[in-house]
Amino acid sequence: MEATVQKHIQKKTARLRMKRVLIQLLSFAREQALSCLFPVVIFASLALTKIVPLPFLPRYDWLLIICLFMQWWMVHSRLETVDELRVITLFHLIGLALEIFKIHMGSWSYPEKGYVKILGVPLYSGFMYASVASYICQAWRRLEVGLVKWPPFLAVFPLAAAIYLNFFTHHFWIDIRWWLSALVLVVFWKSRVTYMVNGTRYSMPVALSFVLIGFFIWIAENIATFFGAWQYPDQAGTWSLVHFGKVSSWLLLVIVSFLIVAVLKQVKGNMPGGKKAGVVEKN
Fold first, then answer.
1. Angle at CA 55, nearest 5°, toward 51 and 56?
2. Domain ranges of the chain
3. Is the torsion defined by CA of 7, 12, 18, 20 positive or negative?
4. CB-based burial of residue 10 (10 Å sphere; 0-12 exposed, 13-18 middle, 19+ buried)?
5. Whether the Cβ atoms of residue 79 and residue 40 lie closer than 8 Å to each other
6. Other Cβ atoms closer than 10 A to 108
7. Rounded CA gap, 78 and 262, in Å?
8. Are residues 265 and 140 in contact, defined by beta-carbon separation less than 8 angstroms?
9. What is the CA radius of gyration of the chain?
10. Which residue of 39, 88, 139, 206 sits 20 to 30 Å from the alpha carbon of 80, by its own alpha carbon?
11. Distance CA 233, CA 236 (A)
């Protein structure tokens, strides 16, 4: 009799644990989906304008209008704060500078017509970089992200700068992305990112979070190129899967994005009246 009761209790406990895991996963997925609102709108707009041609203006210009309206609405509805808008604007400018250079070097192209272009780059393209920053900022706030054993500024800033500069310099010098990736592992070996789901705090290695975000951006890149957001040279004739090696580029871009957001939040947290960035423990 006792064995039967014990077995029943174990089964009930297992069911409750499974239910708890499912609830946590669904809650985490919900917060992630809300954090991805801006990127989702961009991808939906790419698909819509590809399938349904809009009148009066070229497609690239309509995409810019949609992105600007979405950005205004998110701030107006308080889904996004003014501070987050400043960060996103910074990423728009950083991304636009990179796009102009890459177009000049022939890395990819924007073959469609557009009135609002700078040196062949439509202005909406900067929002694709800004959407990465939007996701990071949103997820940071919604999941109450914290950083454990975060390395000092003098290690973080030069690493972020070197990663960004390598996107430019590898056209004229050796590509050191793999050396930089190895350096990321060294600098962030002990660092962890923590996040809150329904009152329970979880954590994972910072480097793993970089890899996961970079991989999913690579998937998003395939969707974007399929709908003509931009075009790689080998996609000129017909669309093909983006080379998996591009994951490394997105990984490094995610690292730059994450580090800039982390540094800006730390700077703001150290200002009088500023809210701490969630740095749980420094090294």
1. 145
2. 37-282
3. negative
4. exposed
5. no
6. 16
7. 21
8. yes
9. 21
10. 206
11. 6
Between 106 and 187, the more confident residue is 187
Q: What is the rounded distance in angstroms from the CA atom of residue 281 to the CA atom of residue 148?
A: 5
**DSSP 8-state secondary structure symbol assigned to residue 147:** E
Q: Phi/psi class of residue 131: alpha, beta or left (left: φ > 0; alpha: ψ in -120 to 50)? A: alpha
- Tokens linked to 126: 């900067």
The full length of the chain comes to: 283
Q: Shortest CA distance to 231 belongs to which of 55, 46, 2?
A: 46
Closest CA to 180 of 92, 254, 100: 254
- Residue environment code for 72-90, b if the CB has 16+ CB neighbours within 10 A, otherwise e: eebeeeeebeeebbebbeb
In terms of Cβ atoms closer than 10 Å to its own Cβ (0-12, 13-18, 19+), residue 28 is middle
Identity at 276, one-letter amino acid code: K
pTM of the predicted model as reported, rounded to 2 decimal places: 0.73
pLDDT, tens digit (0-9, with 9 covering 90-100), for 197-249: 888 888 888 878 777 777 777 777 677 677 666 666 655 667 666 666 666 66
